[in-house]
Amino acid sequence: MNWIQSKDGSYTAYSAQYDEHYHSTKDGALNESLKKHVEPAFALHCDKEHLKIIDICFGLGLNTLATLYYRDTYFPNMTLEIYSPELDGELVASLVDFPYPEIFEPYRNVIADLAASGEHEDDRTRITVEITDARVAMRELAGVWNVCYQDAFSPSSNPALWTREYFADIARLMRDEGIVTTYSTALATRLALYENGFNIYLNQGEGYRSATVASVRELEDFEKVDMEHKIRCNLNIMSLRDVNQLK
Ligand SMILES: C[S@@+](CC[C@H](N)C(=O)[O-])C[C@H]1O[C@@H](n2cnc3c(N)ncnc32)[C@H](O)[C@@H]1O
Predict the structure, then answer these.
(1) Which residues pair with 201 in a beta bridge?
(2) Average pLDDT of span 16-38
(3) pTM for this structure?
(4) CA 193, CA 110: separation in Å to the nearest integer?
(5) How far is it, in rounded angstroms, from Cα 25 to Cα 122?
(6) Does the C-beta of 133 come closer than 6 Å to ligand 1?
(7) Which fold would CATH assign to domain 27-240?
(8) N or C: which end of the chain has fewer CB within 10 A?
(9) Domain range summary for the chain, segments of one domain joined by +
(10) How confident is the model at residue 218 (pLDDT cuts 50, 70, 90)?
(11) Interatomic CA distance for residues 166 and 172, integer angstroms
């Protein structure tokens, strides 16, 4: 595993298979995780006593660990349930040696549990990392979830995790109150979410490139993207479809 220091000092890795970094080296791995996923998730669900998050895909575990850090810092009474599918079992097993940021030091035992068995449970937290294909997992997962961190490799290198049909499974799990957070601002990604009943919002701020929040319910604190206008201006735009991924 090739560890690489990103702009905020935190480490990420490079995947030769996908020819991509696990996080934006320019935004910073930890910064990206907090700004594009964790902060919007808590901002939009700050009233919850129990938060249920799907973390697509576990990778180096930064999104899950940043979620624990954020909960413990700002919402210590909130209980958390995190489900995270990940194809690469060897990667998860190796994470005990990963150079995490200092703020994750209290979670050494969590990382050890997840690396050893894929499970961690304490009085405020339940985490399951399942070594499986996220497509299959999303088809089979039950229940109502509050947040989906959509953090697969990019649509061009891992298209199966960005199709209209894939987001139909996510929409079923999010129901009326759930949100999807993603770094992707591609119109095709946003369209796939929009076609599944999500409103599309811009997540922008200082120190990171713009990202997307998708929500079935209307949001007040994020700028709404006028999808009908975007579609009129891009008449050939299409969401990714499963059928086009068949070899
Ligand atoms: C961008 S990285 C995820 C980074 C992660 N969220 C983090 O915070 O460290 C993408 C991950 O997707 C995994 N992956 C690729 N295809 C997958 C699939 N079909 N199902 C589950 N995981 C997959 C890769 O092994 C890789 O670990």
Answers:
(1) 213, 224
(2) 97
(3) 0.98
(4) 32
(5) 33
(6) yes
(7) Rossmann fold (3.40.50)
(8) C
(9) 27-240
(10) very high
(11) 10
